[in-house]
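Structure first, sequence second, as always.
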């Protein structure tokens, strides 16, 4: 995958981003059939988790954290679901709050550095994996009120034996997953065997600047804001006075949206504070679990100049930075192509750590 080269008929980062998401094949057979669970969160909210169950009760579990405004039906999620099924693995897609088709309840949404939410989800799934394999008698039910709200790496009893679980994150979800691994340190290896991020904006300021100008602003920014703004206004209807509605309606890029909505709702002073504190790149040396970081150097959202070099990561981190691939694209084959190459390569790397 590090040497991936795009098909000749699909040149350039933008085509390699847009075409695969809309028209390339995601799987050989029928689309995945998910079983949905709704989990109550410690702060009185909920998240929805979609499962594709494996036939074997003790099968390893692959967890996928989706990207900005993504879901279990995003092209990359369905391709990862096909990979998991082909290899006898269970598959789970936890939806970030408000991304499962129903607005969440609390005066918050989700963000690129949401490592506490990621940690809470992973710990709960790991406990269930251990119960399923008979390695612990601890209940896998809802968290008790005494547990630290969303404190993934603290406030949870984690057995010394790690679950047979792998985690991947795409774009925003990839950055959040890496932030969890960074914060968790040595304890991450007791929860997952390995993690991988794909097309994550590891330097949020660089990514925010890139998506806020030129073609990116006209196409990608407009696409994201077309769903993010209505969700934010629905949140305001739930919680009047939560933010300035006129400022939100006037936002024309992610910087302005994050300044009025994402940053203040999640404990950041402003966009600069959010982007600085939520970026995974400055903390990659802190990771103590095998971690794969995949970024195409022609990703229109993530400038190649902002990507980390080998001297900026620790010994547990592997960098794959192919010249081609776009943003979560990596198409292959004759038109219309397929998007299975990336999940197969990333999934294969993850499975090797089981």
């Amino acid at each position: 995958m590090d040497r991936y080269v795009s098909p000749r008929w699909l040149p350039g980062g933008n085509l390699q981003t847009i075409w695969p998401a809309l028209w390339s094949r995601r799987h050989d057979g029928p689309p995945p059939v998910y079983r949905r669970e709704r989990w109550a969160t410690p702060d009185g909210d909920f998240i929805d988790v979609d499962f594709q169950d494996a036939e074997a009760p003790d099968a390893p579990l692959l967890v996928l954290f989706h990207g900005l405004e993504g879901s279990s039906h995003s092209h990359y999620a369905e391709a990862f679901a096909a990979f998991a099924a082909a290899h006898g693995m269970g598959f789970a897609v936890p939806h970030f709050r408000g991304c499962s088709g129903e607005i969440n309840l609390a005066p918050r949404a989700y963000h690129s550095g949401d490592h506490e939410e990621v940690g809470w989800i992973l710990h709960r799934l790991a406990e269930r994996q251990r119960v399923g394999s008979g390695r612990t008698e601890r209940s896998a039910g809802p968290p008790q009120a005494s547990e630290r709200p969303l404190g993934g790496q603290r406030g949870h009893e984690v057995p010394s034996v790690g679950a047979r679980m792998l985690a991947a994150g795409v774009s925003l979800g990839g950055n959040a997953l890496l932030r969890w691994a960074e914060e968790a340190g040595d304890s991450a290896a007791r929860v997952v065997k390995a993690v991988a991020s794909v097309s994550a904006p590891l330097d949020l300021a660089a990514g925010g600047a890139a998506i806020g100008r030129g073609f990116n602003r006209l196409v990608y920014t407009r696409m994201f804001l077309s769903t993010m703004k209505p969700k934010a206004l629905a949140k305001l209807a739930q919680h009047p006075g939560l933010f300035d509605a006129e400022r939100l309606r006037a936002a024309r890029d992610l910087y302005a949206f994050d300044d009025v909505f994402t940053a203040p709702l999640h404990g950041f002073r402003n966009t600069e504070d959010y982007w600085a504190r939520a970026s995974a790149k400055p903390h990659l040396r802190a990771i103590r679990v095998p971690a794969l970081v995949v970024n195409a150097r022609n990703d229109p959202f993530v400038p190649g100049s902002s990507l980390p070099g080998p001297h900026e990561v620790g010994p547990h981190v592997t960098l794959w930075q192919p010249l081609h691939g776009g943003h979560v694209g990596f198409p292959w084959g004759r038109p219309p192509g397929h998007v299975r190459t990336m999940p197969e390569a990333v999934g294969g790397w993850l499975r090797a750590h089981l």
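Margin note: Confidence is low (pLDDT under 50) at residues 135-160.
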